[in-house]
Amino acid sequence: MIENQKIKPAQVIGPLGEPLTLDNLPAPGTKRWVVRRKAEVVAAVNGGLLTIDEVCERYDLTLEEFASWQRAVDRSGMPGLRVTRIQHYRDLYERQQRY
C-alpha cells in the first residue's frame, strides 16, 4: 500500500480532476468544512499525499470524523459529504444493504 512507502507523491488528482499538492489543500486549522474541502482531503489521503494521522493532526479531526468522510465519498461521492443530506444517504445505503 502507498501508506507503507517512504516516498510520497508531489501531487494527486483531486475530486474535480485538478492536481492537488500540499500547498493547495485546505489551510491547516480549517474550521469551516464545505464539500469540496472535505473531498480534497479524502483524495489527498487516498492518493498518498498525506496519511490519516497527518490529516487528523493538521486539521484537528478525530479518526471517526475523517472515516465518516471517506465512507460518504465511497458510498455516494461528493454529494454524500453534504451535511444537510447525511440522513438521506445513510437511509439509502441501509436500504441497499437489506435488498
From TrEMBL:
Checking InterPro entries in the record gives: DUF1153 (IPR009534), Trp_repressor/repl_initiator (IPR010921), WH-like_DNA-bd_sf (IPR036388)
Cite the Pfam families for this sequence: DUF1153 (PF06627)
* Organism superkingdom: Bacteria
Q: What is this protein called?
A: DUF1153 domain-containing protein
